[in-house]
Amino acid sequence: MNTYDVVVIGAGVIGSSVAFHLAKFGAKNVLVLDRDTIGAGTTSQSSGILRTHYSVKENVELARHSWQIFNNFAEYLGDDEASCGMVKCGYMIVAPEGDKLEPLRASLNQQREQGIALETLSQAQARELLPIAQFDDAALIGYEPEAGFADAYLVATSFARAARRSGVTVRENAQVNRVLIENGKVVGVSTSIGDFKTSMVISAQNIWTPELAGWTGRELPVTPERHAVLALECDAAKYTFSMPVFKDLASPGMLYCRSYGGSQMLVSEGVVGESLAAAQVEQGDIPMDYVVEVGAQVAERFPAYEASGIASSWTGVYDVTPDWNPVLGKLPGIEGLVVGYGFSGHGFKLSPTVGRILAQEALGMPTDVSLAPYSIERFHTGRLLTGKYGLGAVS
Length: 395
Ligand SMILES: Cc1cc2nc3c(=O)[nH]c(=O)nc-3n(C[C@H](O)[C@H](O)[C@H](O)COP(=O)(O)OP(=O)(O)OC[C@H]3O[C@@H](n4cnc5c(N)ncnc54)[C@H](O)[C@@H]3O)c2cc1C
Fold this sequence. Notes:
The chain is an alpha+beta fold.
């Protein structure tokens, strides 16, 4: 039976980042296993938005560190050909008078205290940056110039490629059937390609984390939740790459929008989605009622989109925890088991730093950012990381 120093379960953007960072910190004998292919899970369904705007200050810290890596991606990976596909177009967030106004003000102030470069814009300034939108109801407009979007699949495959170049073994089409635990210590994994000895497992299984709960007998709360994404085409109002990502706290669905392909609009709701009975990433139906409802919200903000059509659409699944924030770190009571799951629709922008700190934790190093707030224990102690905007992917 082969022995590995660390085994990583899952090669999405999180597992691939973990694997790269394990090698970066000197781990020599690392195995990554994915039952599918690299990035083929929920990572390939991502909208890819990168921002540091969060109402939970711990998340700002993770996003800020991650942005520095995205901004310098090829050099950080030591791979001239690596790209994260970044479009640095900025991020604009708008609140009208009402219950979202003070949460937005407080979040922007918090971000400034954390050293994030931010501007508050007048309606006229906002119109200049995003001329296809109207801002008559906007009471507060935040703008983060150093933000934008990137390609999550490209990031996962780039991390995995860089990990492989540093000696990590990545096996696709290899399913983990069980983590082997003896006397409270991890001793190996049993998989579809054989059993392997290891004293350290990092699970990056996302919506499939209930499998780990079954193997360990631990409660690991997570709900698979399906969300729909639409790409709209409007001849009269193209959403170009130079226009910022837009978050509309005035809309009932707390819409987010961005350029798609340099002319279309990618749009989705930022609220609770459809709970699924089991983990699965197959495409779901997008009811016409939903399309009409989102279309009406889009037209409120982007009047020319009244006459838009759907160019394409897809569904994706979030791994939602009770407070819409991830669980990161060791599972208490089991030696040699680290988890990173529950990203609740906002894990891509955190992935570089999450991979870094999970690798540091597994290797017994100090972590760049504290894992303590993200401990599974918070669901028992009540120290939840619930965001100021309520439940939803802004967090
Ligand atoms: C529609 C949508 C839009 C999003 N938009 C954004 C956004 O704009 N910005 C942002 O920051 N985030 C966004 N996200 C969230 C982000 O994409 C995810 O948080 C991130 O991609 C999750 O990566 P992951 O590695 O945890 O999961 P996954 O990519 O799902 O990877 C998990 C992997 O584990 C493997 N696996 C599981 N169990 C086993 C097993 N037993 N054996 C072997 N392999 C196993 C699976 O095959 C899978 O490949 C969005 C997500 C969706 C669905």
